[in-house]
Amino acid sequence: MTHVLIPCKPLAFGKSRLASALDPIGRRWLCERMLRRTLAAAVAAVGAEQVRVVSADAHVHRVAASCGVSAIDDEADGLNGALAVARRQLLRDVTTLARLMILPIDLPYVEPEILRRAAAEAAAVMIGPDRKFDGTNLLCVDACYVASFPFRYGPASFQRHADAARALGTTPAIMVDQRIAFDLDAPDDYREWANHAAA
Known about the structure:
The termini are far apart. The chain has 8 helices and 7 strands; from the N terminus they run βαβαβαβαββααβαα. It is an alpha/beta fold. The chain has one domain: Spore Coat Polysaccharide Biosynthesis Protein SpsA, Chain A, CATH 3.90.550. The relative contact order is 0.16. The mean pLDDT is 95. Helix 1 packs across helix 4. Strand 1 (2-7), helix 1 (24-46) and strand 2 (51-55) form a beta-alpha-beta unit. Helices cover 43% and strands 17% of the residues.
């Protein structure tokens, strides 16, 4: 059984790098729209009971609840710490966990089918890189490594996660798919997506 963690910053502070393309209200609206879309894809892929949102934002918790999804408070400093705390809580709360998936909210083309395919991947660690092969846009870790796999989000996280998998003795599978690789990380990404959506 695959469980999904969806980390989400407080909506008022999300996507600050899009400031040249969107004002604060627009960025907040975009973050909530992406959160709802990501929740819908994850729920369709694995079921609401297997999805958790990780956030310090009470409104994010309410959005998750409206989708039938539980939330875990983000009380850590930074994404890696928040995911480590959420993982510990998840391992305490569930009796069966075959695979853990980390899914960010800023993948506008993500679909349930691609998430189901990632969940079914035979490799013990699967990494979906961004278009530059720099960041990690999707991470799946098999049960045998869930407790020990180090989260290394940040610059060059794709390579750092691949190195972490090899250090644990397993060769990671790499999922190259534009539905995963395309993220809304910079103003040019947003404009490309907005132009495509308007076409």
